[in-house]
Amino acid sequence: MRPKQILGGIVFFIAVIGIGGTAFITRDQWLPLLNPEASTAKANAGQPPVKEAKVLKLSPQARKNLGLVSKPAALQDYWRTIQVPGIVVDRPGQSDRGITSPAVGIVTQIHSFAGDTVKSGDTLFTLRLFSEYLQNTQSELFKATLETQLLQEERTRLGKLARSGTIAGNRIIELDQQIHRQAGLIQAYRQDLLTRGLLPSHIKQITAGEFVSTIDVVVPVPVSEDRSPRVIQPVVSLDSPDDESFVYEVQELKVELGQQVQAGQLLSVLSNHRSLYIEGHAFKQEAPTLERAAKNGWSVEVEFADDDSRHWPPLEQTFRIRHLANTIDLASRTFDFFIPLMNQSRAYQQDGQTFVVWRLRPGQRVRLHVPVEQIENVIVLPAAAVVREGPEAYVFRQNGDLFNRIPVHVLHEDSLSIVLANDGSVAPGSYLAQGSAASLNRVLKAQAASGMRADVHVHADGTTHAPH
After folding, report:
1. Is the Cβ–Cβ distance between 420 and 411 less than 8 Å?
2. 396-440 pLDDT, tens per residue?
3. Helix or strand or coil: residue 169?
4. Please, what CATH class does the domain formed by 83-92+271-373 belong to?
5. Which of 164, 237, 377, 463 has a CA positioned 20 to 30 A from the CA of residue 228?
6. CATH 2.40.420.20 fits domain 55-75+377-465
7. Domain coordinates of the chain in residue numbers?
8. Around 130, how many Cα atoms within 13 Å sit in the side-chain half-sphere?
9. What is the pLDDT of residues 127-156, one digit of tens each?
10. What's the pTM value of the predicted model, to 2 decimals?
């Protein structure tokens, strides 16, 4: 081997050793460039783990923007319910009333039209009588009345002769019997005419020989729920739902001016929506629950769709199931149950006429919350007061400007309320946010992502520490 080759090998060997030594000494600088993930893991291994954020800070302005309200938690009993759809309907036999013609006649005048308000005794129609039977009855009543007067005069004249012995007493007995028969006929004719719509004043007119050719059809006396007529006063105001005045509204006219009508024909329909029903629609499998609620008299919570409750007084009544239908609708496969409802009304005047506005109307949709079982000693919050993250559920407890996120155990929830177990996670009396839990949770995550804990105070000297 030549000396130059030996010298070159020695120089290469020394260079390799130098480069290797330099690389070994500077390994902390170039190794992270080759494996950045391992470097990050090593760096993180040397730092303490970051704790999950549980406290957020919210300014008074932010709370106002969210409409956030906090109330103390209280233990109470809660009724678990099922939701059933329903609808407001007329109460058969009480909400609507048909007005029929008492006899054959022709409509000569219509006094009240659709939308008008009428009370008992108001005239609805004027009919010109066109009934041969009614005319004959009036004629027979007049003849019987006249015959009775003649018999009475004969009885008076012969009575003096019978007392003197001029005639036998049997003649007086025969006259008395004829008078009794005529009295019976008069009573029968009177009742017949009264049932056909004639008034006692008309009967008096007929007995005097003035036959009735026209008749007024008037608003009948309302019938209360116990099916006994009640005396009512003229309507003054319907602003109060407890007003004793009872009025009808002309809902529909069934005849026209100049139309001939038959006895018993429907002339118009009157309505009063004070007494209504809430008709619920349930499936057959829910029948035992509804039967138990009806039997025990449990109160049903009712949500009325499109109800303007701000401009009406509260509905201070308890809703209970009155009865369950025993038939199933073939189309919907549901059966109905009924809850009595007392409506509210207001009245206003226009052009001398009173008009009525009802708060609830037939056809209005409702949602019924029928009680199933009672859960005792629990905390009940609005549905918006709880936020969920997977299997976890959280509420927010307020402490000044700070809100602590607390995990809770949910026993039951529906569209309105959430029921929390009394397991010590929330102490009774703690002020809990009553809504916007989802928004609060988002704010908490945003504050945690910023790197500054909401419960850490920063002093003027730059020192930080946890809350006192």
Report:
1. yes
2. 999 888 899 999 999 988 878 899 999 888 989 999 999 889 988
3. coil
4. mainly beta
5. 237
6. yes
7. 3-45, 55-75+377-465, 83-92+271-373, 98-269
8. 15
9. 998 878 888 888 888 888 888 888 888 877
10. 0.63
